[in-house]
Amino acid sequence: VDVAFHPLVVRVRPETDDSATITFDVPEHLRDLFRHEPGQHVVLRADIDGEDVRRSYSICSAPGAPLRVGVKRIPGGRFSTWATTELRDGDRLDVLPPIGEFVHRTDPTRAASYVLVAAGSGITPILAMATTILATEPESTCTLVYGNRRVASIMFLEELEALKNRWPDRFRLLHVLSREPHDIPLFTGRIDLDKVRMLAGGLIDVDRVDSWYLCGPLGMVEDVQAALADLGVPAARVHAELFYDERVESVPEVDESSAVSVPFTVTIDGRSSTLHVDPDGPSLLDYARTVRSEVPFACKGGMCATCKAKVLCGEVTMAKNYALTPDEVADGFVLTCQAHPVAGSDPVTVSFDVHGGIGR
Ligand SMILES: Cc1cc2nc3c(=O)[nH]c(=O)nc-3n(C[C@H](O)[C@H](O)[C@H](O)COP(=O)(O)OP(=O)(O)OC[C@H]3O[C@@H](n4cnc5c(N)ncnc54)[C@H](O)[C@@H]3O)c2cc1C
Description:
Elements: E1 6-16, E2 19-25, E3 41-48, E4 51-58, E5 68-72, H1 78-85, E6 92-95, E7 113-119, H2 123-136, E8 141-148, H3 157-166, E9 171-177, H4 193-200, E10 211-216, H5 218-230, E11 238-242, E12 262-268, E13 271-277, H6 284-291, E14 308-313, E15 316-318, H7 326-330, E16 333-335, E17 339-341, E18 348-351
Parallel strand pairs: 7-8, 7-10, 8-9, 10-11, 12-18
Antiparallel strand pairs: 1-2, 1-6, 2-5, 3-4, 3-6, 12-13, 14-16, 14-18, 15-17
Residues 41, 55-58, 69-72, 74, 76-81, 121, 124, 241, 243-244, 298-299, 304 line the site of flavin-adenine dinucleotide.
């Protein structure tokens, strides 16, 4: 994994009232490095009011087309608000080369049936996949089930309509709206267990689907996965990408007297909280969130570095790291979403207040 950020010139276009697309000008000498497969994402980094903010965004363009992402503004969201209101044409944004295993590997000889399920901004990697499949697998078909609150919030509506007009026999687009009633109940509400069962009983012949690609918040992805498992769909056919976890998990604190427990102190905004944690239990981020709700995080997958903090005492290991540079790791920074104390470590202290160590 290349961990160096590259400052790329951007072009910003409004997409809906609360979203924008950002297209990157990738110079010739970086083209190979920034080549992507449909479904992959990039980590973007910006300095926002003196804070280093990094977030993941899936690439919505098909391979070969200019590198482009779509950002939906989250109320109060740090990066998405800045990127959709402050970022201007010609600015430079720091970008990590594409990463991610949620990919569709296209095969022009295949005659497959794909079902793509997206909610809200989860459309971005799905759009790249649909565009690629339709353009490169002439015998394959796609059904897209796309959930949004209302018509005005649907990202890429025009591009999807254009795909439908171009390949009316191979692309089916089913909109599901949660806040705009529709005569047909199937197209109203959220994409959940019942919705998948209704689709499977009618518009989608589940046994004939070769691959499912799901993208959105945890609740939607888990519901669709559970419904498909109930319907006998082998898990190997179901691929998913999570954009965020809308549920705050409750993580039990470990009993102080337990033989394995390690004292863990977390400092943020100058204030410290201490609890006891199990080295084989949840991540330090999950533990920290039980006592300090303001701890920052986004992807929880070791990719975005939102949850970066510095280990001041104790021994900590990371399961995965796609976001920190070797210099940052050497400086004692960890991705807390991937961090666990080493068994038998001295008490661990982690601070979210120490910045720096960002070498590139
Ligand atoms: C692999 C991956 C790919 C992603 N691709 C995209 C993409 O293509 N387009 C896109 O807009 N976002 C995408 N995201 C989400 C994105 O990385 C940010 O989390 C999102 O833009 C919010 O960041 P923020 O700084 O504005 O909000 P923050 O200030 O970090 O968080 C504000 C709150 O919003 C919640 N939240 C985070 N994401 C969402 C969301 N999508 N909808 C509702 N609430 C949310 C958080 O849990 C938090 O409580 C992706 C995430 C991952 C892990």
